[in-house]
Design brief:
This protein is mainly beta and 559 residues long. The protein contains 7 helices and 35 strands.
């Protein structure tokens, strides 16, 4: 770094004057005392604190300089300086100024002219650069200081505004602010699966000595490795997210942003930050040095960083990061569909995987039938690799398709909810006898509030132009059971799953005029002020039932 002698000696002279001002015990006037106090306070802001981590904010292309000197009686004491870039690479240097005692005295007293100072500087002092570094790694300099030397640290960012942390200590007997790393700080990948990666690393000496105050935290992301926890937190914040302090990972759940999810299980705290470049996971696992990262995406490259964190000081040290690519997801098993045969598929909502069905057409016109039994299902149909249908289904859904003989159809089914879903599927030639009954325009059941009594209710439902059998069932339920009963209802199950006592009646009806294809039924013998769940089942020629949407009605309490 380029630096003129002027910039070094101007703060030096005033700094030495400030230091001597501290030792003047009997000022002659109040104005002298005020001047010395103001001078000391101004230049004290440039002095690097001993034994404390200092955050330094850097503006692009503008150097920042800090100084430190030894206290009296600490000649030739060891010292260490640790600099942690929190974002982009920076340049930093340590310069030392050595001057004779007589020169320091003159500089402090001010009893000299400019020419004398210039000659004295050249004859009695030297400036040398003892260390310089450029990059974004955490670097530590260890040296031996002298009471007759003044040190200056200069920092420069040439890419953009950023911030760093600087830690100076001259006390090597009271332990370390930063946890220690092992002699081999690498992270080893010992297992890779489709959705998991297993990591291990050597224990930090700090964990072995101060187990209750130290823990490991793991950072997982899809972008790159981070050389410090400070750099990782800065990157996450720059994505527009407010990040909790590092200690939130290990001590208590701070308030999280909407883009963050916190998971606490088996004494492990995980925070998932959803950023534009993917998820960034932070997992703190105590003092375990082997960990299997779960719930990863197949065939994806991930970067892993381990930090050993001192819970008392919030300081951390970074292991050498690593990366691994999860295995490719195996091709899903494909189930062959046969003409006219009905299969029921149960879909795992947690894994969100597609279930694939394949059919080779033996006719030019075919029809796919889907009956949703439970949950929510997405259907995607391709013909010879090209999409012909894709939508979420509800109730009963038909797809009539035209093509050529031996066309290959692939049906992919996926649950759109986190809970399991199930669906019945049938494919058949267009002229094939329909498996499911002809459906009315709506499968809703209507109740008439004015016709409710203490022991009866009246319901109605739509029919079709085809004579069909309808069976009505009832069931007593409690207020707190309504949501669960409606939510968990299996719309593919028939009356065989119901208790005999729940059956009310069965009847046949139809009407050529759809406007009049409506039937009503009054169910008697009910209890007053009681909730009932009513179901209607429609049976077609094949005997396979279709269940109307359940209806909850409460009888009057007083009549």
């Amino acid at each position: 770094l380029k630096m003129s002698w002027f910039w070094f000696y101007l703060p030096l002279r005033l700094l030495m004057a400030a230091c001597l001002c501290r030792s003047i015990k009997d000022p002659t006037t109040s104005s002298q005392q005020s001047f010395k106090t103001d001078l000391f306070n101004f230049y004290h802001s440039l002095i690097l604190a001993d034994g404390k981590e200092t955050t330094v904010h850097l503006l692009k292309d503008i150097p920042r300089r800090y100084y430190f000197v030894l206290e009296e009686g600490r000649a030739f004491a060891p010292f260490t300086i640790t600099v942690t870039p929190c974002d982009v690479p920076i340049e930093w240097s340590i310069l030392v100024h050595k001057a004779s005692t007589s020169f320091l005295g003159k500089a402090a007293r001010g009893d000299h002219d400019t020419q004398e100072v210039s000659k004295s500087q050249k004859a009695s002092s030297t400036v040398s650069t003892i260390f310089n570094y450029k990059g974004n790694s955490v670097e530590t300099y260890m040296g031996m200081s002298s009471h007759s030397a003044l040190y200056m640290l200069e920092f420069l960012s040439t890419e953009r505004d950023t911030h760093i942390t600087v830690y100076l200590t001259t006390d090597t007997t009271s332990g370390h602010l930063y946890p220690e790393l092992p002699t081999d700080p690498r992270i080893d990948v010992i297992g890779i699966g489709h959705t998991t990666v297993t990591l291990t690393w050597k224990h930090s000496p700090s964990v072995l000595q101060h187990r209750e105050n130290i823990q490991y935290c793991l950072l997982v992301n899809e972008k790159h490795n981070y050389k410090s926890l400070c750099a990782a937190e800065t990157a996450i914040r720059s994505s527009g997210m407010k990040l909790p302090p590092t200690l939130a990972l290990s001590l208590s759940p701070y308030l999280l942003e909407p883009q963050q999810v916190m998971i606490l299980s088996n004494s492990e705290l995980s925070i998932i930050n959803r950023v534009s470049s993917g998820e960034v996971r932070q997992i703190c696992m105590g003092t375990k040095n082997t960990y299997t990262v779960p719930s990863l995406s197949p065939s994806t490259q991930y970067y892993f960083d381990v930090f050993v964190v001192n819970l008392l000081t919030n300081a951390s040290a970074a292991y050498t990061g690593t990366f691994a690519r999860t295995l490719e997801e195996p091709e899903p098993k494909v189930t062959e569909l046969k003409d006219g045969k009905v299969i029921q598929v149960v879909l795992d909502g947690k894994k969100q995987k597609f279930h694939s069905l394949q059919y080779q057409a033996r006719h030019k016109k075919i029809q796919f039938t889907f009956q949703l039994c439970h949950g929510q299902v997405r259907v995607h149909i391709t013909k010879n690799g090209k999409t012909v249908a894709s939508e979420n289904i509800s109730g009963l859904r038909y797809f009539s398709l035209k093509g050529k003989l031996l066309d290959t159809y692939l049906v992919q089914l996926r649950s759109t909810e986190e809970t399991n879903s199930s669906v019945k599927v049938q494919v058949s030639p267009h002229f094939h006898k329909p498996l499911f009954p002809l459906l009315p325009e709506s499968l809703k059941i209507k109740s008439f509030s004015k016709l409710r009594t203490c022991n009866s209710v009246t319901i109605a439902w739509l029919g079709t132009q085809e004579e069909s059998k309808y069976c009505v069932y009832k069931k007593k339920i409690e207020e707190d059971q309504v949501w669960m009963e409606l939510r968990s209802a299996d719309r593919c199950s028939g009356p065989e799953s119901r208790h005999r006592s729940e059956k009310v009646l069965c009847k046949y009806f139809y009407d050529i005029n759809l406007q009049r294809a409506v039937t009503t039924e009054t169910i008697k013998g009910l209890d007053a002020g009681t909730l009932y769940l009513f179901d209607v089942y429609l049976f077609g020629p094949s005997g396979i039932p279709v269940r109307y949407h359940s209806k909850v009605v409460k009888t009057r309490k007083r009549c």
